[in-house]
Design brief:
This protein is an alpha/beta fold. It folds into 2 domains: about 55-235 and about 440-455, 3-Deoxy-D-manno-octulosonic-acid transferase, N-terminal domain (Rossmann fold); about 255-435, Glycogen Phosphorylase B (Rossmann fold, 3-Layer(aba) Sandwich), CATH 3.40.50. Helices cover about 50% and strands about 15% of the residues. The protein has 20 helices and 16 strands. It has helices at about 10-50, 60, 70-75, 85-100, 115-125, 140-150, 165-170, 185-190, 195-205, 215-220, 235-245, 255, 270-285, 300-310, 345-350, 370, 390-395, 405-420, 420-435, 440-455; strands at about 1-5, 5, 80-85, 110, 130-135, 150-155, 175-180, 205-210, 230, 260-270, 290-295, 315-320, 335, 355, 380, 400. The strands form 3 sheets. Strands 5-4-3-6-7-8-9 form a 7-stranded parallel β-sheet, sandwiched between helices. A 7-stranded parallel β-sheet has the order 12-13-11-10-14-15-16. Strands 1-2 form a two-stranded antiparallel sheet. Helix 13 links the parallel strand 10 (about 260-270) and strand 11. Helix 11 crosses helix 20 (about 440-455). The longest helix has about 40 residues, at about 10-50. The chain is globular and about 65 Å long. The two termini are about 35 Å apart.
């Protein structure tokens, strides 16, 4: 028992045992992380040889070269945001803008897990005084980083729950907020194997703002305190709707594709491009004016994809080469391969129909919002584990169709292309479904503001 704030003798060994168990979990996690890093090193080197840029941020991965902004050095601290990659950086962007308006005197720092996420942050987050790649989640690196940045709060996007990072923040009394939190079924199944560790990790999160009630139940099952858990909705919906409403100049490819049917397959992976090219070849017998745009998830795969397109007896054109082309140059079975960054969302605005990559192979699917906000009919395969709520929402509204295999994809696309009015109606249903679920950005911002107002009180 505990009497008058003092632990009695029988309680001390139990407390020590509990602390030892917790420390052991973190030690095992750190050892596993180091061994996994060594095992992945050959793959990383191979990716670098094929064009990936991981080596450019090697010093930052080891915790070096991250210089705090002037405001942090002056003693005011900062607001630290962390996101995984391109999509997550785009998702946290409006939250950063809103909070920066409330506390303009606080420097904004933003970390990303991938080099592509870092480049996107440098391009679209002008409020950030510092953008860097997150170091490896090793305890000594995270402790040093927290001490150098001295954040008033750490806001992590979606599923970026790095145990040693959150532990270092909690030990230095830095409030941690999970914004736009989500937990796919696949991730949930993996985390259940390490539930004792996840319970400890989630205890270091001050506030969990999650996208859906199902996500909240999964977090709670892993040990999250229900009092810290709130369903705020998906801020990505608000962000996508706001972006689509902004006036933008016509896309550079608009003149080339005017009057043509256009199928845009976004964020594709190895294995599904073969299926898409086969389906495209069959569709062209019915619709000779059909063009296909393939946007690989990883740009370093472009050269391989170009050879694959040519092997299917199609003419392959890089997007970067299209500036010198005329509409007549796109005659025949032409496939445009996107070899640029940041263009996919605007390309969806031109398409007749969209396909979501990473869904015909067990990747988990990618962003369904970008075509939906342009009122485009969209298709995806059976693997949408990363976005189950959005996929279900769009399907139930009649704005999306899920297919199981190549034959079904061909049949459904042929039907959509053959009935353009039905396709347009399908796109409108997708947009209306999203519009009915806006408001998460305001709820999230309001909750974070309330927490920060308390944390920033003198």
């Amino acid at each position: 028992m505990r009497e008058h704030g003092v632990f009695t003798g029988d309680m001390v060994p139990k407390t020590r045992t509990l602390l030892l168990k917790r420390s052991t979990m973190y030690v095992l996690y750190t050892v596993f992380l180091l061994l996994s890093g060594l095992a992945l090193l050959p793959h990383v080197l191979w990716r670098c040889l094929r064009g990936a840029t991981y080596h450019q941020d090697l010093a930052a991965r080891c915790g070096y070269g991250i210089v705090p902004p002037t405001g942090v050095q002056a003693g005011r601290g900062c607001l630290w945001f962390h996101a995984a990659s391109v999509g997550e950086v785009q998702g946290v962007r409006p939250i950063i803008a809103s909070l920066h308006q409330c506390w303009p005197e606080l420097p904004i720092v933003l970390s990303a897990f991938t080099p592509a996420g870092k480049r996107m942050a440098q391009r679209i987050v002008p409020e950030a005084a510092l953008v860097f790649v997150l170091p490896l989640d090793l305890p000594w690196l995270m402790r040093r980083l927290i001490r150098r940045l001295r954040p008033c709060a750490l806001l992590v996007q979606e599923t970026e729950l790095w145990p040693n990072l959150l532990r270092a923040a909690a030990r230095q009394h830095v409030p941690v907020v999970l914004v736009n939190g989500r937990l796919s079924w696949r991730a949930f199944r993996r985390y259940r194997w390490v539930r004792p560790l996840m319970r400890r990790v989630l205890a270091d999160v001050t506030l969990l703002l999650v996208q859906s009630p199902e996500g909240a139940r999964r977090f709670q099952h892993l040990g999250a305190d229900a009092r810290r858990l709130h369903v705020a909705g998906n801020t990505n919906i608000d962000r996508a709707l706001l972006a689509a409403a902004q006036p933008v100049p016509p896309h550079a490819l608009a003149a080339l594709v005017t009057g043509r049917r256009l199928l845009v397959a976004g964020s594709t992976h190895a294995g599904e491009e073969t299926v898409l090219l086969s389906v495209y070849g069959r569709l062209r017998t019915q619709y000779p004016d059909l063009l296909l745009v393939l946007a690989p998830r990883h740009v370093e795969r472009v050269a391989t994809l170009l050879r694959q397109v040519q092997a299917q007896h199609c003419r392959a054109i890089r997007r970067s080469q299209c500036a010198s082309l005329h509409p007549g140059d796109l005659a025949g079975a032409t496939v445009i391969v996107l070899d640029t960054m940041g263009e996919l969302a605007s390309l969806y605005s031109l398409c007749t129909v969209a396909f979501i990559g990473g869904s015909l192979v067990p990747i988990g699917g990618h962003n369904v919002l970008e075509p939906a906000v342009f009122a485009k009919p969209l298709f995806f395969g059976p693997y949408m584990d990363h976005f189950p709520d959005l996929a279900a929402l769009l399907q139930q509204a009649g704005g999306a169709i899920q297919v199981q295999n190549e034959a079904e994809l061909y049949e459904r696309l042929a039907d959509c292309l053959g009935h353009p009015e039905a396709g347009k109606a399908m796109g409108r249903c997708a947009l209306e479904a999203l519009a009915a679920h806006r408001g998460a950005l305001e709820r999230t911002t309001r909750a974070v503001q309330a927490l920060l107002s308390t944390a920033l009180m003198p």
